[in-house]
Design brief:
Helix content is about 75%, strand content about 0%. The chain has about 280 residues and is mostly helical. Among the domains are: about 80-115 and about 130-200, Serine Threonine Protein Phosphatase 5, Tetratricopeptide repeat; about 200-275, Tetratricopeptide repeat domain (Serine Threonine Protein Phosphatase 5, Tetratricopeptide repeat). Helix 5 packs parallel to helix 7 (about 220-235) and helix 7 (about 220-235) packs antiparallel against helix 8 (about 240-250).
Length: about 280
Protein backbone atom coordinates (compact mmCIF):
# COMPACT_ATOMS: atom_id res chain seq x y z
CA UNK A 1 0.00 0.00 0.00
CA UNK A 2 1.48 3.40 -1.16
CA UNK A 3 1.85 6.30 1.27
CA UNK A 4 0.36 9.73 0.37
CA UNK A 5 3.00 12.45 -0.04
CA UNK A 6 3.42 14.77 2.91
CA UNK A 7 2.73 18.53 2.81
CA UNK A 8 6.46 19.27 3.13
CA UNK A 9 7.23 17.16 0.14
CA UNK A 10 4.59 18.95 -1.95
CA UNK A 11 6.12 22.31 -1.02
CA UNK A 12 9.55 21.24 -2.13
CA UNK A 13 8.19 20.07 -5.46
CA UNK A 14 6.35 23.36 -6.09
CA UNK A 15 9.46 25.43 -5.18
CA UNK A 16 11.60 23.42 -7.57
CA UNK A 17 9.07 24.01 -10.37
CA UNK A 18 9.00 27.77 -9.79
CA UNK A 19 12.81 27.99 -9.71
CA UNK A 20 13.07 25.96 -12.90
CA UNK A 21 10.54 28.21 -14.66
CA UNK A 22 12.30 31.41 -13.52
CA UNK A 23 15.69 30.07 -14.64
CA UNK A 24 14.29 29.33 -18.07
CA UNK A 25 12.88 32.87 -18.32
CA UNK A 26 16.25 34.35 -17.24
CA UNK A 27 18.10 32.43 -19.90
CA UNK A 28 15.69 33.36 -22.72
CA UNK A 29 15.44 37.14 -23.58
CA UNK A 30 12.47 38.47 -25.49
CA UNK A 31 12.79 39.53 -29.19
CA UNK A 32 12.36 43.19 -28.19
CA UNK A 33 15.20 42.98 -25.72
CA UNK A 34 17.42 41.33 -28.34
CA UNK A 35 16.70 44.14 -30.86
CA UNK A 36 17.35 46.83 -28.28
CA UNK A 37 20.65 45.25 -27.31
CA UNK A 38 21.65 44.99 -30.99
CA UNK A 39 20.72 48.61 -31.66
CA UNK A 40 22.67 49.74 -28.59
CA UNK A 41 25.74 47.82 -29.77
CA UNK A 42 25.53 49.24 -33.29
CA UNK A 43 25.02 52.76 -31.96
CA UNK A 44 28.15 52.42 -29.88
CA UNK A 45 30.10 51.40 -32.96
CA UNK A 46 28.76 54.36 -34.99
CA UNK A 47 29.69 56.79 -32.21
CA UNK A 48 33.20 55.39 -32.13
CA UNK A 49 33.54 55.82 -35.91
CA UNK A 50 32.14 59.37 -35.80
CA UNK A 51 34.50 60.34 -33.01
CA UNK A 52 37.47 58.92 -34.91
CA UNK A 53 36.42 60.71 -38.15
CA UNK A 54 36.08 64.03 -36.30
CA UNK A 55 39.59 63.66 -34.99
CA UNK A 56 40.86 62.91 -38.48
CA UNK A 57 39.04 65.92 -39.93
CA UNK A 58 40.41 68.15 -37.20
CA UNK A 59 43.95 66.90 -37.78
CA UNK A 60 43.61 67.46 -41.52
CA UNK A 61 42.29 70.98 -40.97
CA UNK A 62 45.17 71.77 -38.65
CA UNK A 63 47.62 70.56 -41.32
CA UNK A 64 45.94 72.79 -43.91
CA UNK A 65 46.12 75.81 -41.62
CA UNK A 66 49.78 75.17 -40.87
CA UNK A 67 50.51 74.94 -44.61
CA UNK A 68 48.68 78.22 -45.24
CA UNK A 69 50.58 79.85 -42.39
CA UNK A 70 53.91 78.74 -43.85
CA UNK A 71 52.89 80.09 -47.25
CA UNK A 72 51.88 83.44 -45.77
CA UNK A 73 55.14 83.69 -43.89
CA UNK A 74 57.05 82.91 -47.07
CA UNK A 75 55.12 85.55 -49.01
CA UNK A 76 55.74 88.07 -46.24
CA UNK A 77 59.46 87.37 -46.32
CA UNK A 78 59.54 87.75 -50.11
CA UNK A 79 57.67 91.05 -49.89
CA UNK A 80 60.02 92.31 -47.19
CA UNK A 81 63.08 91.26 -49.19
CA UNK A 82 61.67 92.98 -52.28
CA UNK A 83 60.99 96.17 -50.33
CA UNK A 84 64.50 96.10 -48.84
CA UNK A 85 66.02 95.60 -52.29
CA UNK A 86 63.97 98.41 -53.82
CA UNK A 87 64.84 100.72 -50.95
CA UNK A 88 68.54 99.95 -51.38
CA UNK A 89 68.36 100.65 -55.12
CA UNK A 90 66.64 103.95 -54.49
CA UNK A 91 69.19 104.94 -51.84
CA UNK A 92 71.99 104.04 -54.24
CA UNK A 93 70.40 106.15 -56.96
CA UNK A 94 70.05 109.18 -54.72
CA UNK A 95 73.59 108.68 -53.44
CA UNK A 96 74.84 108.66 -57.01
CA UNK A 97 72.80 111.77 -57.84
CA UNK A 98 74.17 113.47 -54.76
CA UNK A 99 77.72 112.61 -55.79
CA UNK A 100 77.12 114.00 -59.26
CA UNK A 101 75.61 117.17 -57.78
CA UNK A 102 78.67 117.64 -55.61
CA UNK A 103 80.93 117.25 -58.65
CA UNK A 104 78.77 119.67 -60.59
CA UNK A 105 78.89 122.25 -57.81
CA UNK A 106 82.68 121.97 -57.77
CA UNK A 107 82.74 122.59 -61.51
CA UNK A 108 80.49 125.62 -61.09
CA UNK A 109 82.76 127.12 -58.43
CA UNK A 110 85.79 126.53 -60.63
CA UNK A 111 84.05 128.13 -63.61
CA UNK A 112 83.03 131.17 -61.56
CA UNK A 113 86.62 131.71 -60.50
CA UNK A 114 87.79 131.60 -64.13
CA UNK A 115 88.17 134.70 -66.28
CA UNK A 116 84.87 136.14 -67.60
CA UNK A 117 83.89 135.90 -71.19
CA UNK A 118 84.43 132.18 -71.67
CA UNK A 119 82.42 130.56 -74.43
CA UNK A 120 79.33 128.53 -73.54
CA UNK A 121 79.51 124.75 -73.61
CA UNK A 122 78.85 123.07 -76.96
CA UNK A 123 77.05 119.84 -77.63
CA UNK A 124 78.90 116.74 -78.79
CA UNK A 125 79.39 116.22 -82.50
CA UNK A 126 76.39 114.88 -84.36
CA UNK A 127 73.77 116.43 -82.07
CA UNK A 128 70.49 117.82 -83.30
CA UNK A 129 71.22 121.30 -84.70
CA UNK A 130 67.96 122.54 -83.16
CA UNK A 131 69.38 121.82 -79.69
CA UNK A 132 71.62 124.57 -78.31
CA UNK A 133 73.34 125.11 -75.01
CA UNK A 134 72.29 128.54 -73.78
CA UNK A 135 74.24 128.55 -70.57
CA UNK A 136 77.76 128.00 -69.34
CA UNK A 137 78.70 126.78 -65.84
CA UNK A 138 79.11 130.37 -64.70
CA UNK A 139 75.46 131.02 -65.53
CA UNK A 140 74.06 128.45 -63.12
CA UNK A 141 71.75 130.34 -60.73
CA UNK A 142 71.90 129.70 -57.04
CA UNK A 143 68.69 128.21 -55.69
CA UNK A 144 67.16 130.09 -52.80
CA UNK A 145 64.72 128.79 -50.21
CA UNK A 146 61.47 127.71 -51.85
CA UNK A 147 58.79 125.07 -51.64
CA UNK A 148 58.94 122.08 -53.94
CA UNK A 149 56.44 123.46 -56.47
CA UNK A 150 58.34 126.74 -56.79
CA UNK A 151 61.67 124.93 -57.14
CA UNK A 152 60.17 122.60 -59.74
CA UNK A 153 58.71 125.49 -61.75
CA UNK A 154 62.02 127.31 -61.63
CA UNK A 155 63.95 124.33 -62.94
CA UNK A 156 61.37 123.71 -65.65
CA UNK A 157 61.52 127.31 -66.85
CA UNK A 158 65.31 127.05 -66.92
CA UNK A 159 65.06 123.92 -69.06
CA UNK A 160 62.56 125.54 -71.45
CA UNK A 161 64.84 128.54 -71.88
CA UNK A 162 67.55 126.23 -73.23
CA UNK A 163 69.89 126.64 -70.25
CA UNK A 164 70.45 122.92 -69.97
CA UNK A 165 73.53 123.02 -67.77
CA UNK A 166 71.69 125.22 -65.28
CA UNK A 167 68.62 123.00 -65.52
CA UNK A 168 70.68 119.90 -64.66
CA UNK A 169 72.00 121.61 -61.54
CA UNK A 170 68.50 122.68 -60.49
CA UNK A 171 66.92 119.27 -61.08
CA UNK A 172 69.67 117.58 -59.09
CA UNK A 173 69.20 120.08 -56.29
CA UNK A 174 65.44 119.49 -56.37
CA UNK A 175 65.83 115.71 -56.08
CA UNK A 176 68.23 116.13 -53.20
CA UNK A 177 66.20 118.79 -51.34
CA UNK A 178 62.69 117.31 -51.77
CA UNK A 179 63.05 113.50 -51.66
CA UNK A 180 59.40 113.07 -50.58
CA UNK A 181 57.85 115.47 -53.08
CA UNK A 182 55.01 114.24 -55.28
CA UNK A 183 56.93 115.90 -58.14
CA UNK A 184 59.93 113.58 -57.75
CA UNK A 185 59.12 111.36 -60.73
CA UNK A 186 58.53 114.32 -63.05
CA UNK A 187 61.69 116.02 -61.86
CA UNK A 188 63.64 112.83 -62.47
CA UNK A 189 62.25 112.60 -66.00
CA UNK A 190 63.21 116.16 -66.86
CA UNK A 191 66.67 115.64 -65.38
CA UNK A 192 67.05 112.74 -67.80
CA UNK A 193 65.85 114.94 -70.65
CA UNK A 194 68.37 117.61 -69.66
CA UNK A 195 71.16 115.04 -69.82
CA UNK A 196 69.78 113.65 -73.09
CA UNK A 197 69.82 116.96 -74.98
CA UNK A 198 73.43 117.50 -73.92
CA UNK A 199 74.18 113.99 -75.28
CA UNK A 200 75.26 112.77 -71.87
CA UNK A 201 73.67 109.42 -72.64
CA UNK A 202 75.27 107.57 -69.73
CA UNK A 203 73.73 109.84 -67.10
CA UNK A 204 70.49 110.06 -69.04
CA UNK A 205 70.25 106.25 -69.13
CA UNK A 206 70.84 106.05 -65.39
CA UNK A 207 68.07 108.55 -64.64
CA UNK A 208 65.53 107.14 -67.11
CA UNK A 209 66.10 103.57 -65.91
CA UNK A 210 65.74 104.67 -62.29
CA UNK A 211 62.41 106.31 -63.07
CA UNK A 212 61.05 103.19 -64.78
CA UNK A 213 62.25 100.97 -61.92
CA UNK A 214 60.91 103.12 -59.08
CA UNK A 215 57.80 104.58 -60.73
CA UNK A 216 56.54 101.93 -63.23
CA UNK A 217 52.98 103.30 -63.01
CA UNK A 218 54.00 106.89 -63.60
CA UNK A 219 52.65 108.74 -66.62
CA UNK A 220 56.29 109.48 -67.43
CA UNK A 221 57.38 105.84 -67.37
CA UNK A 222 56.59 105.06 -71.05
CA UNK A 223 58.48 108.15 -72.23
CA UNK A 224 61.38 107.36 -69.90
CA UNK A 225 61.61 103.82 -71.29
CA UNK A 226 61.51 105.24 -74.84
CA UNK A 227 64.35 107.65 -74.08
CA UNK A 228 66.32 104.84 -72.44
CA UNK A 229 66.07 102.93 -75.72
CA UNK A 230 67.15 106.03 -77.62
CA UNK A 231 70.17 106.43 -75.35
CA UNK A 232 71.18 102.81 -75.92
CA UNK A 233 70.75 103.34 -79.65
CA UNK A 234 73.01 106.42 -79.55
CA UNK A 235 75.63 104.41 -77.65
CA UNK A 236 75.49 101.76 -80.43
CA UNK A 237 74.16 99.16 -77.99
CA UNK A 238 71.64 98.00 -80.56
CA UNK A 239 70.56 94.66 -78.99
CA UNK A 240 69.84 96.47 -75.70
CA UNK A 241 68.01 99.27 -77.52
CA UNK A 242 65.86 96.79 -79.42
CA UNK A 243 65.02 94.86 -76.24
CA UNK A 244 64.12 98.07 -74.40
CA UNK A 245 61.84 99.33 -77.16
CA UNK A 246 60.13 95.95 -77.44
CA UNK A 247 59.66 95.96 -73.68
CA UNK A 248 58.03 99.39 -73.99
CA UNK A 249 55.56 98.07 -76.57
CA UNK A 250 54.72 95.13 -74.32
CA UNK A 251 54.35 97.06 -71.04
CA UNK A 252 52.62 100.18 -72.37
CA UNK A 253 50.69 99.17 -75.51
CA UNK A 254 48.66 101.89 -77.15
CA UNK A 255 50.76 104.74 -75.73
CA UNK A 256 52.38 107.39 -77.92
CA UNK A 257 55.74 106.17 -76.65
CA UNK A 258 54.95 102.64 -77.85
CA UNK A 259 54.08 104.01 -81.29
CA UNK A 260 57.38 105.90 -81.47
CA UNK A 261 59.19 102.78 -80.29
CA UNK A 262 57.63 100.86 -83.19
CA UNK A 263 58.82 103.50 -85.66
CA UNK A 264 62.35 103.37 -84.28
CA UNK A 265 62.37 99.57 -84.35
CA UNK A 266 61.25 99.67 -87.99
CA UNK A 267 64.11 102.02 -88.84
CA UNK A 268 66.57 99.83 -86.98
CA UNK A 269 65.31 96.80 -88.89
CA UNK A 270 65.61 98.59 -92.22
CA UNK A 271 69.10 99.80 -91.37
CA UNK A 272 70.14 96.31 -90.33
CA UNK A 273 68.75 94.84 -93.54
CA UNK A 274 70.58 97.40 -95.66
CA UNK A 275 73.83 96.63 -93.87
CA UNK A 276 73.56 92.91 -94.66
CA UNK A 277 72.81 93.32 -98.37
Amino acid sequence: MRRAPSIAGLGIVLLASVLQSGGAQAREASPTEIKLNDIDTRLGRVEAVVNNQSLLDMARRIDELETQLRQLRGAQEETQNGADSLGKQQRDLYADLDRRLTTLESSVRAARSAAPGSAPLALAAGSDPAVTMASSPSEVPVLGPADDQSAYNRAFETLKSGSYFAAIAQWLDFLKTYPSSKLQENAQYWLGESYYVTRDFDNASLVFKGLVDFYPDSAKAPDALLKLGYCQFEKKRLPEARATLQQLQSRYPGSDAARLAGERLAKMGAAGGAATR
